[in-house]
Amino acid sequence: MEVVIVGGGLVGTLLAILLGRRGYRIRLFERRPDMRTHGYTGGRSINLALSDRGIRALERAGIADRILPLTIPMKGRMIHHQDSSLDFQPYGIEGQVIRSLSRARLNLALLEAADDLDTVQMEFEWRCVHVEPEVPAATFVHVRTGEQQRVAGDVLIGADGAYSAVREVLRTRDRYNYCQEYLDYGYKELSIPAGPDGSFLMEPNALHIWPRHNFMMIALPNTEGTFTCTLFLPYEGEVSFAQLYSRDRVHEFFAHYFPDAVPLMPTLLEDFEHNPTASLVTIRCFPWVVGRTALIGDAAHAIVPFYGQGMNAGFEDCRILDELLDRYHDDWDAALQEYQRLRKPAGDAVAQLALDNFVEMRDKVADPQFLLRKKIEVLLFEHFPELYTPLYTLVTFSPDVSYDQAYRQGQANERIIAEIMKLPNIEERWDDPALLPEYRHILERFHDHAS
Ligand SMILES: Cc1cc2nc3c(=O)[nH]c(=O)nc-3n(C[C@H](O)[C@H](O)[C@H](O)COP(=O)(O)OP(=O)(O)OC[C@H]3O[C@@H](n4cnc5c(N)ncnc54)[C@H](O)[C@@H]3O)c2cc1C
């Protein structure tokens, strides 16, 4: 049986490994040159946060041991206030970390692991230009020679990212639901080099955030001692990319809003000028499965990057599809229908969570009321783990909980915390042990109501 995969990015290669290990013959087509011989030509973020959902999928593919050593654990958020003071907010309890990882290294490791399998054949510089979903078959054009080939298989999977050519064909069909929404924000990547001896110039085991209400900058560490910074800023308006039209304006802006970062960014002005400003899109579509053609990863659900879950969600798609093939004894029709039934709500939920988290990261993390709520959440989780789990923990550290379950639980959490915040003098008393029975009472009330 032959599976054709369109797209050899992060999700396509992981899927090739999982399905290749099942014994299917895999033909994977990627429009870019082979990065093992041509270097990395990808346009998107230099590093990514890998968390438990992604790791679970890598473990299933038997390659977590190759990839985890390439990562830097980040234990929490390091908040950089405008007066240059710092605050550290842990992501979870001891041992719960997210991991910064180079996109290029990850893609390379996945390509090498796919190449180790006799069942996987990868063809580079072939761009998919057409799909016949019911056959299923895809037509590819060689990007340099213009040569064409039509490839039919038993199953065809579009893992060709946010601007998927496979999805584009499905989109033109009758009763196809499609929605594409851009934020009014763009992002630009900048860099902080390593110190003279290759040391980190900021805390390496943290995700750094400079929240400035309606915009922000973040930085993730790289193993070379460098940091990749990303500035998220409105395209237009009083404080916006449109206003940063000269080197002086850029310098003034950074010196005003990110005074502690500027001395660490010697190439700031050059980076700002040369690096592109990229857009942020959410894409929702349905169905993901038409005949024996299916979408996976960003092709099915492109989301904004604020929960660090896009790739993790795509990896989880792969893991769940593989588990369903086990459950349905490789009956693809049954597995694909169940894949779509389970994953579409999960994709919608993680898209919404990612949009909501932008407000949290750029604004709320610096708000004392929000910090109090967070402290109460940690206290509830420590004392009553059977009754309360924070949303961040559900999304990031709980791969057994689907994104849609996490989303619903997060909404219930909001109501619980709102109730607790109404208790008299909660600001002073929140950690008074005498309040624990009251907390339990509130939690049980919500728990009974939900069940
Ligand atoms: C700024 C930013 C930060 C992010 N940070 C995180 C993070 O911290 N954690 C996280 O989990 N996710 C993060 N993401 C999301 C993550 O990058 C994506 O979810 C992930 O790359 C999706 O993988 P994919 O394989 O589905 O798509 P892609 O990585 O886009 O790969 C698609 C592949 O298909 C190929 N292709 C496209 N069209 C064709 C065609 N017509 N024919 C053949 N091949 C084709 C492309 O060349 C590419 O190799 C971030 C995204 C951005 C933009």
Quick structural summary:
By secondary structure, the chain is of the alpha+beta class. It contains 15 helices and 20 strands.
Considering the chains and any ligands shown, give keywords for the structure.
about 25% strand; eight-stranded mixed sheet; 3 domains; 15 helices; 20 strands; binds flavin-adenine dinucleotide; six-stranded mixed sheet; alpha+beta; FAD/NAD(P)-binding domain; about 450 residues
- Approximately how much beta-strand content do the residues carry? 15-25%
The biggest beta sheet is recorded as:
8 strands, mixed
Globally, the shape reads globular
Structural class: alpha+beta
Distance between the termini: 45 Å
Q: Compute the number of helices.
A: 15
Segments where pLDDT lies below 50 for 5+ residues?
none
CATH topology of the largest domain: FAD/NAD(P)-binding domain
Cross-sheet strand order for the largest sheet: 6-5-14-15-16-13-17-20
Q: What's the level 1 CATH class of the largest domain? A: Alpha Beta
| Percentage of residues in helical conformation | 25-40%
DSSP summary, beta strand count: 20
Domain count? 3
